[in-house]
């Protein structure tokens, strides 16, 4: 695996957008993971119908996929990537909140906020992400 520098081309982004279908196809034969396949397949669907691969909207998106969409986006924002620095926890929370109702299910966002804003959860997140470094 190489770490590409710079932005993806349109063709590269189209290829990346195939990963939910590819992963679902790999998992589909495994009976023990039958219930996970729709979550994997639809975790990039947006609440407003603009996501992929099937452009599902609202409650047509499986609940697990709506949850994974919020948690996955948060995790992606707070971790270092080869192409960008991580956001702080507060900035990532603000980003999730600002996309509620469009990218994310507002009910899931509220449940996420209820958990992630708890002092014990924030403390654990900061320890996991920052270790002993100064945090936001």
How do you describe this structure in short?
52% of the residues lie in helices and 0% in strands.
What can you see in these coordinates?
There is one protein chain. This protein has 136 residues and is an all-alpha fold. It has one domain: Hypothetical protein af1432. The protein contains seven helices and no strands. It is globular and about 40 Å long. The protein starts with 9 loop residues before the first helix and ends in a 6-residue tail after the last helix. The model has no long low-confidence stretch (mean pLDDT 91).
Furnish the topology, listing elements before pairings.
Elements: H1 10-16, H2 19-27, H3 37-42, H4 63-78, H5 89-98, H6 106-116, H7 119-130
Helix pairs in contact: 4-5
Distance between the termini: 32 Å
CATH level-two architecture: Orthogonal Bundle
Order of helical and strand elements: HHHHHHH
- Helix amount: 40-55%
Total domain units: 1
Mean pLDDT: 91
């Amino acid at each position: 695996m190489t770490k590409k520098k710079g932005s993806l081309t349109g063709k590269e982004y189209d290829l990346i957008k195939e990963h939910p279908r590819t992963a679902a196809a790999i998992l589909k034969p495994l009976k023990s993971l039958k219930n996970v396949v729709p979550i994997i397949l639809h975790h990039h669907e947006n609440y407003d119908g603009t996501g992929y691969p099937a452009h599902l909207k609202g409650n047509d998106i499986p609940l697990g996929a709506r949850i994974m969409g919020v948690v996955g986006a948060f995790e992606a924002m707070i971790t270092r990537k080869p192409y960008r620095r991580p956001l702080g926890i507060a900035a990532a929370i603000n980003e999730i909140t600002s996309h509620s109702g469009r990218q994310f299910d507002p009910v899931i966002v509220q449940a996420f906020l209820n958990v992630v804003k708890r002092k014990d959860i924030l403390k654990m997140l900061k320890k996991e992400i920052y270790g002993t470094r100064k945090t936001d």
